[in-house]
Amino acid sequence: MTLGVATGAALSPAAERVRERLSASPVAGRSEVADLDLPTIEVAAEGWPALARFLRDDPGCRYDLFLDLCGVDNLRRPGKKTRFEAVVHLHSLSRNEHVRVRVLLADAEKPRLPSVCDVYPASNWFEREAYDLFGFDVTGHPNLHRILCHDAFVGHPLRKDYAPGQRWFYAEEDARMPEWSKNTDERAGHFETQTISIGPSHPATHGIIHLVARLDGEKIVRAETMIGYLHRCFEKMAETHHWNQIVPYTDRLNYVSAMLNGVGYVRTVEKMLGVEVPDRGRLVRTILSEFTRIMDHCVCIGANMVDIGALTNFIYLYQNRENIYDLLEACCGARLTVSYVRVGGLAVDVPDDFVPRCRALLDSIPGFLDDVEKLVTNNRIVRNRLSGTGIVTKEQAIAWGMTGPMLRASGVAYDVRRARPYDFYDKFDWDVPIAQDGDNFARYLVRLEEMRQSLKIIRQALEIFPAKGPVNSDDWRVVLPPKDAVYHDMESLIYHFKLTMEGIRVPAGERYEWIEGANGELGFYAVSDGRGGPYRLKVRPPCFPNMAAFEHIVVGGTVSDAIATLGTLNVIAGELDR
Amino acid sequence: MSGVIDVSRRVPDRLTLLQKLYLPEILRGMWVTLRHLVRNLTNMKGMPTIQYPDQKRNYSARFRGKHILKAREDGTLKCVACYMCQQACPAECITIVAGEHPKIAYEKYPVVFDIDMMRCVFCGFCVDACPKDAIWMTRNYEMAFFTREDAVFSIDRLRETKEEVAQHGYGYRPYYPGDGTTPPSDASLLPVLAGSGERDRLREQGIALADRGPGQGPLNAPSQAQKAFTA
User: What residue in B sits closest to A485 (Cα-Cα)?
Assistant: First the structure.
């Protein structure tokens, strides 16, 4: 669909509303509204800060949750207005709506993007990422440094004229420390402050994360997180592969809940294609996704408890994970990196004993959760370590763009499964757990309850699970034909050949689809130019904004509080660094 | 659909004196762990841990382990070097070099078929991509090597052997016993060969077209398996 407001083309009610509101905005007349999968506002870079403020504050807009900012390079997409654009996704919690803003950046060599950090604090790291991967000159940004690529990196990898095979070596002397950390003569009272590095390789950092902290005694007075140690540029690799070939790569985003990433990704492609997956296939995805969510929360709580010295819980929680892995392995042949979903369905139908196996799991998991609850919830040490530490208020959580258990533990009942039900979530009876305190203990409670709600969802999904039926769409332009047909039927072989060699032909266009990942809103923004693979694929990792807030949350607490907080943030480096 | 529950209301804000005293809570916690200990001691077989490597984990028939190349009855590889698995591989770990097979019915065969096990992510896409039922996976997951060169498995290490299958068993494959799939017959030719004038060209070159699998009809007649499928 072309952008054209002046022509008065018929828009969907949502887009029409956005257009109406915009007439009162400071960029009225300088912005356009298009009706894509989401209402899309197009604005030139100069008008972006004013528009951002308007979208956040206007009572008819109230887009308060900053979800994502990503660059797109239109070098190989003819007919676009500018070479570079920044695509922003926002959500309004009160009106439960998403909106997309496309910021057009004029200069083709050094595109200037005004920072909106003062409007949306969550945009801080996203803007740094756009600077790093696209070379956007983010004017007014407080800390414009590379974030995912290392400091000896040359060029901007997601530009279309950047050749993907290049290697840049990183030596110790290239390591960047924050400017403020070099200045050592700061004094507080009679103590000299000192700066320490926690990580990059530290058992408490759950993956490789570098926290530079300035300590006054044992209190953290300033901190900065350095990430990117696990960066492999998933998004560039996606551009050089076919749509289906990206599924194994998504497993490695949040490797603790690999199934959820795959489901989120293929849903995006299926929506672009308009392919419907049969009920049975969608229910298998739902059931395994919920089991995966339980697994993710088990790892989060278990590891968090280990960090604060309660080892036994880890064993009990990991037993659940082990049992769920057994189920996943029986379905798809791998435990961790499942690669089970495909665009249009699943790799292979579930085994015959799928339902009894799920029921056995449903019986065994609550016992372990009860044990953990007995050991932890009223334990005085745990309470002392978790209650009142790592506090995130409701306002802060929204401003920092948090989603998932982090946001819900601060008292906002935003769950994608409820806010925009996909698959069968609107048919099930379940509750969204929230807590009010916003501290580490609240996050523990929310996760624990979420596991019980997931069990409830699975139980209902098994009730309506069809005993027989296809799991894949029957569209052979998307799904590989059955093997029997490939072996003996010429036409099927041709479909098989075309799909394998050329990939799925996804119609040109763009789409943002989001699901509730284990850590929050997991979104995939895909741009297709009609080839067999994506032109641009952006993943909105839920723990990225959470981690961006970490350096603010820990200030004022002790180092040991920071460790407990890092645990409840549930940062997974594979997803954070991509 | 249902509502929202506030979990912070569920647990008391403050601990009771008994909980604050700590000792009763320790005992309560120890009771939980003791129960697990007794349960494990009385039921050693049900214990979740296994004594690897003495004891091996029992994986499902879909396990994605080391690949094997399937062979025809006469011992030649079923692979026709069509490059589909190489193309489908998301990790780009398969290298194929094709050669012309002396037996006309087989047409092409892989002179080189290498899988770099260090790159392989064991996703099973190669098995899905194969149109000739030539590549399967086993349940063999123990592939340690000392050098990078060792990690590149060539045909001699990929060819299916009875010992390997007996020891580990088949894993992920295109079809499973009982799901009604008929594998392609050994000597079935791609039907495209029949109508393309290829036969005449070959005959002009003096190549004997009779050299096909035993019991096969003329080139353009459907194979037994094809008949079974269309019936």
Answer: B229
Q: Does B220 touch chain A (CB under 8 A)?
A: no
Among B3, B22, B124, beta carbon nearest to A339: B124
- Going by pLDDT thresholds of 50, 70 and 90, the confidence category of residue B3 is confident
Cis, bond preceding A278 (omega within 30 deg of 0):
no
* Among chain A residues, CA nearest to B5: A433
**What 8-state DSSP symbol labels residue A244?**
G
ipTM value of the model? 0.83
Assess contact for A336 and A255: CB atoms under 8 A: yes
In tens, the pLDDT along A378-420 reads: 788 888 888 888 899 999 999 999 999 999 999 898 999 988 8
Residues 6+ apart with CB under 8 A from A250: A258, A261, A262, A264, A265, A539
Residue B25 near chain A (CB below 8 Å): yes
Mutate to test the interface with A, among B1, B92, B140, B227 (most CBs of A within 10 A): B1
Q: Which of A104, A259, A239, A158 is nearest to A526 (CA)?
A: A239
Higher pLDDT, A25 or A415: A415
Same domain, B39 and B128: no
Minimum Cα–Cα distance from B226: chain A residue = A488
Domains of chain A in start order, with CATH, are 13-139 (3.30.460.80), 234-577 (1.10.645.10)
Same domain, B78 and B157: yes
For residue A199, the model assigns a pLDDT of 76
| B196 and A CB contact within 8 Å | no
Does residue A335 belong to the interface with chain B, where contact is any CB pair within 8 Å? no
Does B147 map to a domain? yes
Total-model pTM:
0.86
